[in-house]
Amino acid sequence: MIVLTWAALLYAALTSLCLSLNRHHREVFNGRITRLNQRSLRWLGFIGIAASLACCLWLAPNGRSWVLWFCALAGLGYGLNFALAYVPRLIPAAGKLALGLALMAGVGCFLARA
Amino acid sequence: MKEGFRQSMAWLHTWSGLIVGWLLLAIFLTGAASYYRSEITGWMHPEIPSGAPVSQSQALKQAMDWLHDRAPVANSWLIDLPTERLPVTQVMWQAAGERRYNSELLNPASQQPVAPRKTFGGDFFYGFHFQLSLPPIIGRWIVGVASMLMFIAIISGVITHRRIFKDFFTFRPGKGQRSWLDAHNTLSVLALPFHVLITYTGLVTLMFMYVPWGIDLVYGNDRGAYFRDLRDFTPPAAPATEKADLAPYARLIEQARQQWGEGHIARVAIGSPGATNARIELIRDTQDQVSSLPQRLVLNGVSGELIETSDATGPAKAFYGVLYGLHLAHFAEPLLRLLLFISGLGGTIMIATGLQLWVVKRKGNATGGLYRRIEGLNVAVILGLPLAMAGFFWGNRLVPGGLPGREIVEVQVFFAVWLMTILHAQVRSIRKVWREQALLCALAFAGVPLLDLITGPDAVNGLNLFCVLFAGAFAFVLWRLCRSPSGRRSTRATRQIESRS
User: Which of A89, B132, B143, B203 is buried most deeply by CB count within 10 Å?
Assistant: First the structure.
């Protein structure tokens, strides 16, 4: 549950970053990305990644969390790349699902701690 | 100037990678497997019961009773308590006047020796990872040089890679050379922190060998003194002649509980058991700390009183402990262990794609000769090594239990399979080599759980699950090899080249 908060957020952020790139946007949506969308997706991606790391370290402030986060970054990145190559149409839905999961897990964690 | 620099880095990346690429691939793959060293050891000892976990105090009591009966007069006893990952007690004892340790595995529930088949288990891959089954000094030097070149390849690779961010998510399969480059880039960049960390900390683990001058300056020729300081090791004193009963196990458990809480003893080392100068060391597990240097308690062996507590103190020691700990990852719980394993496999595939890139880039220009040897060697490490590893597991189940030196035979099976894949890759046509070895890998890994089902008591375990997944992955590779249009095209090109030559 605790892992899900930041891991799902990390996946959603990676998706956002990925879709802010012209080439991948075209692969997924069949259209060129607008400048506004590109900026906002990119910012969302970077903020999401930073927030995910902050959340991971805040939930368990120790050295292991750093290792876990960077390994998760690699693992989720591999997964996203694989999906982008073989099932690109599912990328937006998977990203939204991840964001939803992150929010739900975050609320769940908050309630459990309160 | 800038272009020139980048090009020279590209040259450095290509050649530093190619020279040791095969070796690095083997080091990475066996290293990744070593994350599951205990689990592999457990699987290769099917005699070890996978029953309910036994409390540490019960296991310690039984081990001490067993050693008391079996080796009442000894220089020292070592007791490794069962863990969740390997639920067996290992007892070792050094008889008076002997240098070597005897060892036995005890069933923590029944106090009886497990009498397992002789096998190196996961220790084989672990040892191969840093000394390649060669004499230790030679093997470690070779691995050290390879790691240094890996480090150079990582740094030069980052400099060479022009569009690191733009290519972050780019993988376009089925496009020949482009796909190999994409896969190589994305595998490298996404796990770059892992690659840098694991290569650097790997060098640190053996830094005493590679950069010994600082140590020599302080300690002179007495290298042993340095290691004693580093690991807080006190050599056991000769046993006193007067006898005295050893402190009861409950006293040890209580001392450990007061200092560390419940259930944290990893090892109990008892010097001069049964003598008046007996000395007991309790060594804590390192599961909840990054550093590999464990905390220890030293007790009087007769009264059980605490003599001293030791911890990794001093910045140099702490720094070394953390870096070594990061490499060994004893702190990793199942999820992190899995992610580290995946990162290790990612590194392995990164090296494999790099090696393939060298071959694919030169396709068409080169014919036969060295090019063909390199092409064959690539397959023999990319598919031959996993096949040899599966062969090692097969050997464990098929070599008869009572055969003298059977643990050596298992290792021979590993190297024999690997050697055969190397020869096979040199003599068959390369297209067939890829397909046949991929097929063999898929079959060999699929066979491991079946073999376990037929011969072992319990086939539901993690290693069998991984083998099924690997079998699936190799089947996927085989399917891609058979239907890849670029493969067919290149085959036609190869045939033309072959017919010309």
Answer: B143
